[in-house]
Amino acid sequence: MTNFPKNFLWGGATAANQLEGGYKEDGRGLSIADALPGGKDRFSIVQSPDFDWTIDETKYTYPNHLGIDYYHHFKEDIKLFSEMGFKCYRFSIAWSRIFPNGDELEPNEAGLKFYDQVIDECLKYNIEPVITISHYELPLNLAKNYGGWKNKKLITFFERFARVVLTRYYKKVKYWMTFNEINSAAHFPVMGQGLVPSNGGNEKKNVFQAWHNQFVSSSKAVQIGHELDKNLQIGCMILYATTYSYDANPANQLATVQQNQDFNFFCADVQVRGQYPSYTKRLLAEYGLTVDDLDRTDEELALIKKYPVDYIGFSYYMSSAVEVTKEDNDTVSGNLLGGVKNPFLKASDWGWQIDPTGLRIALNQLYDRYQKPLFIVENGLGAHDDPDKDHYVEDDYRIDYLKEHIKAMAGAIDDGVDLMGYTPWGCIDLVSASTGEMSKRYGFIYVDLDDNGEGTLKRYPKKSFYWYKDVISNNGLK
């Protein structure tokens, strides 16, 4: 088995909105995640024309309010991460904990002090913090009263937020990412852009404008970070789904090339290469748009050019197949996107097709295209766990999934890919982003909490906890 680099960053990943809880504590404001109801229908509910970011606690439950109460358990949880041997821990800062409404001039000191403690707790165990500045948790006020990221005023608000957290923590935190899965808005702009049908989410012009505003904001964060310390590593973060043509039909081959451009590469092309790609005109034309329909200034484009990101963080859960020549294809679900069923792959409990080889392909495609360091910051298996009477989970299915993906990583390193690290998603059980469930579990640590919010919140290591500990201690598979 390939030797991983000596300084390889093994760890795990979470997001504030899915685990912190404490949604009203110490001055925190509401975020868009707080307005997402629980259950498998949460996305269909928010896509209704009537949904306007109003929280109705008489009608829906809101599991993101509670998360797994990490706000009061973070020391216990980080200690468990240290017992696994984590070299790094990827987490996000809740924007509404720092600027409760998003548009204030001064930050909430109590929120900053919370992350002081989280960062210091990581460093106590020699765990490198890897911070996502914005991870699906836009302050609710900015979605309701400003219309989300299509409003250019959010550039100023984000710059203020990024400047506060970067200035506060840059001496302790080397690794940063700007926007989580920024390209997911191609299919579902609710999470990343705060756009729903009632505030323009169905209009592609708004999605592209929101992206532009985020590209500018990302470059501002890179500028701020590099002015503080030129050695800070500030990356973008995309959702990557390796894409195959269903067959050798040239129509499907062309559609595959274009889907790769439109989904896997577009946002990275701008943030990594520092300019809009050559196919932008074709992509916009598919929606009846031109670049003149977007509010972009020469100064903004120059900023994007001057301050590209330092590395590429990405999530990888599944691959996608493209078939445009037939209308009756079998389909599968996936990470904010679906697709044609690939007959060569098995699927998870939630219908996400499992494809470790696709990860090796993804790593090669990304590194060949950009020649920038790569960081797998999400990967994992959402599954039903069945604990015994002592709350121990024999999750060999999760171990098998991760083992095969680590083998694919090793293969990509052999191929010459510069891979920085690996942080499996939901290293501790947390609220699912796609369904609001606890029963869709990813973690190495079982949390005693069910979909109705009932449970002791006690933490219990799973079998995969000890397996992953061995992986880290051996710097890879034995």
TrEMBL record:
The active site is at 378 (nucleophile). One of its GO terms (biological process) is carbohydrate catabolic process. Pfam families: Glyco_hydro_1 (PF00232). It comes from the Bacteria. SUPFAM superfamilies: (Trans)glycosidases. PANTHER family: 6-PHOSPHO-BETA-GLUCOSIDASE ASCB-RELATED, GLYCOSYL HYDROLASE. This is Glycoside hydrolase family 1 protein. Keywords: Glycosidase, Hydrolase. GO terms for cellular component: cytosol. Belongs to the glycosyl hydrolase 1 family. Gene3D superfamilies: Glycosidases. GO terms for molecular function: beta-glucosidase activity.
